[in-house]
Amino acid sequence: MWLVLLLLGWILWEIGGKASVGIRDYGVGFLTSTTWDVGRQQFGILPHIWGTLYSSLLALAVGGFFGIVMAIFLTQDFLPPQFAMVFRTVVELLAAIPSVVYGLWGLFVVVPALRPVAAWLFEKVSWIPFFGTTLSGPGLAPAALVLAIMILPTVAAISQDALRLVPYRVKEAAYGMGTTKWEAILKVMLPTAATGIFGALVLGFGRALGETMALAMLIGNSNQISLSLFAPANTLAALLALNFPEAGKREVEVLMYAALVLLAITLVVNVAGELIMSLASRKTKA
Amino acid sequence: MSVIAPVNTHSTGTNASANGSVVIDCKLDHVFYGAFLAVRDSHVQIERGKITGFIGPSGCGKSTVLRSLNRMNDLIHGFRFEGHVQFHGRNVYERTIDPVAVRRYIGMVFQQPNPFSMSIFDNVAFGLRLNRFKGNVPERVEKALRQAALWDEVKDKLKNSGLSLSGGQQQRLCIARAVATEPSVLLMDEPCSALDPIATRRIEELMIQLKQSYTIAIVTHNMQQAQRVADITAFFSVDISKGSRTGYLVESGPTKALFESPREQLTKEYVAGQFS
Amino acid sequence: MSAIPRPMEAVQLQRAPFERRALRNGLLTLGAWAAAIIAGIPLISVLYMLVVRGGARLGWEAVSSLPPAGFEMGGGFGNAIVGTFVMVGIGGLISIPIGVLAAVFLAELGPTRRLSQVARFATKTLTGIPSILAGVFAYAVVVLLTGTYSVPAGGLALAVLMLPTVILTAESAIRAVPKITRDAAYGMGCTRSQVVWKVLLPTAMPGILTGVMLAVARAAGETAPLLFTALFSSFWLFDSGAKLMQPTASLAVLIYNFAGMPFDNQIELAWAASLVLVLIVLVINVVSRLVGQRRA
Hints:
The complex is a heterotrimer. Chain B is of the alpha/beta class. Chain B has helices at 62-69, 99-105, 120-130, 137-147, 151-154, 167-179, 197-210, 223-229, 255-260, 265-271; strands spanning 22-33, 36-47, 51-55, 79-87, 90-91, 106-109, 185-189, 215-219, 232-239, 246-254. Chain B is 32% helix and 26% strand. In chain B, strands 5-4-1-2-10-9-3-8-7-6 form a ten-stranded mixed beta sheet, with helices on both faces. In chain B, β7, α7 and β8 form a beta-alpha-beta unit. The longest helix of chain B is centred in the last third of the chain and has 14 residues, at 197-210. The radius of gyration of chain B is 19 Å and the shape is globular. The termini of chain B are far apart. At the A-C interface, α1, α3, α4, α5 and α8 of A face α1, α3, α4, α5 and α6 of C.
């Protein structure tokens, strides 16, 4: 046990230690600056923080929605048990596929598929900032989509648990009042399971934040901030993945700083998610 | 939409006089859960303005019969009903009948109080909003809470969660919720078994008051409760002659008559407390 | 007999499928089905690509030869397979004993003690750590210390990732052992450690194995932690003796590297390697499920 706490502490200490040099030199400006130029020894990770948050939010919007719908679909008697098993297995298989493979697939299936869509949108509505650029190669949209697929199983699994925790008598009460199936789901089951589902979303968000490989391959590695869904961008994790292998000593310290930031963000989100989940299970036991 | 005239009874196996009109006429031939025959040959009639009690030993199918009246058993996989349940001139088990619609007109209160995790007001207003009630909602909510003898205790805290009330209060909240839409019939499945004696007493008094406005059918495992509350009592028992336990209606009639001078030997034994 | 002092309302029992509430219900169900099918499409697409493009290239040559350089044709990823196995193995060697021990400690301590709650919370949080940070950690600890990319560094990074999963699943497996079994053992006069080692662990073994296998499956697919701990290599691991302190290939990193190359040859190999990797992961998942179900 001590080992785990020790480990956690050690990780923090190590990264922190290395990062402290970076912090000393660059201070808070590091977080808000947007340039990343190795040659001039100038670093700023604002675009990466932006990219991390933006891509994860988009992924959460799509993946979270589909995840919750899947959870409803699997727990509210839409299917005979055997078929439910099939869909549940599909969701679990989605979770088992390694990140790199998703990246590979994203590059060769999603990007080509999105390109015409992006071009069409650019033609028609480029004044909407979301569609301000074309998709030349990797970019935010394919990365966010693949990310959504990757967090769908997480959201679906935890939401299923939350829905299953709703006592049977609450469901009975709803139907006894003469609700249709979806009225019972939307007006009674979901509100009752709301805390758990919210926790599922938060944890899914946390997973998205930490996702590295698929993003590194799909996000386009460009250090700019843009609202456009189809512009290339970058995330903290991808930054680390792409630059670490070739980094010189100075750059390593800076990257450690970035790693610390990433660690902080993901820890906060994950801890919040876990707290919400334990709150949810305590509520239903009451 | 058809305008409904009250349904007249046709002769039944009971001694109940056909004075009042029958709101629900349930002729149950068989009820199966999968391959298991749960209940057979039970013909009960729920009469307007009266409380009909279902009594009998455990496993005799009284809850099953009650839940068959508003098609609540549909929620259970493998449930099959053979027979008919006449309500407002239609058999509710016809394929063209929508079970959701049936439940709007037949309300139900369950053994375990099960208020929704929303405010007291929203709980009671739930049915009204579901059916897009165009009238004055707060007025109806108050009326329902008064009918459930809960108004005075909660009128200052309508915004509190329904789950913050005590067990007996929660059950009265469920009753208020059920009567807010003024259903034709109110079904109650052992509504007091999860409550303490004092709360039980309050709800029994409540039932007698509700009788003035609603038709009630109640399942109870407590004979004395049936004697206190029910106008008509139906006694069910278990048939083990074929190797499995199948419930069936033994006899039914005015409560006083059933308890004091039952026709069937089995009934005599049950009311004498010889088995339970 | 009392009369009901309100008029009988008009009662509509008939099914009316186009009435607003029923219509909305039907449309929502349709929508749910559509969403479920849409959610299945990516999986089908991925599997399809794997089988078609990966399968086209998969063969004896692919799994037995070394990775090709830029303009070369042919080649394979045999060393990557070996590398993955070795590093996952090391990861397991580190994380399994520590994890099971920790799980035993946690389980025996009881679920209500403050310490175990804190520890469990910390472990759950650890499962959410981005995999790349595990790599950063291993980098800081091993690579900087030893001055070179190496197999143990990769193994350590993987161990960090596997540890929380092993602990959590092992702990719940141990706690799931019925109290009666535990009592019976104590009743026979066993000491605490005998109960744990001779009774609890064997009984909980299927559950523990499931957890271990899931952790292994996850580790096999991880790329980020290996990127700067084991890096990559185009040579066999055991070429010149078992030199572990050198950069090593792995399936995941190979896929990553080749995916970005503008050469069709490499891309084909990436697909083939992906197929192998996914097959390995799926097999482990299925086996773990079977093992887990074996507990009667």
